[in-house]
Amino acid sequence: MSITTDGREPRIHRQQQAAVAVAALATAPVLGWAAGSDILQILLPCAAGVAAPLFLSRRPAAFRAACLITGTTLLVLALPLAVLGVFLFAPSAVLLLLAPAAHPERRTTAGTAAAAGAVLLAAGLTLAAAWHLLPA
After folding, report:
1. pLDDT attached to residue 18
2. Alpha-carbon span 46 to 73, nearest angstrom
3. Is the model's pLDDT at 100 over the cut of 70?
């Protein structure tokens, strides 16, 4: 949630939106891998769900709920639907779970270190997926 002092309605901070945008971009290697196959019909709605919180920038409570619900759902479904490639959305799910806490006015040292580690892990997993899954 955003903290405002000038009387305007609360909005989502740019860093929170950026975390969701990076999570949505992290789905590109997965969709590229699935392009031209029937699995794309299953993975495309998952990718759309990852991008859904981007449209909730004027509603902080809905943004937080969408991030937490989508991230948790993708992580829970990652193992049972691993054969369909849903586990490749794990970096996006981690970023979605961290996005509500990415507000700069409510930052602690431990939270910053955990978020930085998770972002690096998600970026590494995304790059590894892109390296191995996209056709050369």
Report:
1. 85
2. 10
3. yes
Burial of 88 (0-12, 13-18, 19+ CB in 10 A): buried
- For residues 31 and 116, what is the distance between their CA atoms, to the nearest angstrom? 26
Give me 45's structure tokens.
């709605």
Angle at 28 between CA 125 and CA 19, to 5 degrees: 65
Confidence of residue 34 (pLDDT cuts 50, 70, 90): confident
Cβ contacts of 42-48, under 8 Å, gap ≥ 24: 42/81, 42/84, 42/85, 42/86, 43/84, 43/85, 43/86, 43/89, 46/74, 46/86, 46/89, 47/89
Torsion from C-alpha of 60, 63, 64, 69, nearest 10 degrees? 160
Query: Is residue 134 within a helix (H) or strand (E), and if so which, with residue range?
Result: none
Q: How far does CA 63 lie from the centroid of its chain?
A: 12
Instruction: Supply the DSSP string of 63-111, one letter for each residue.
Output: HHHHHHHHHHHHHHHHTTTGGGTGGGGHHHHHHHHHGGG--GGG--HHH
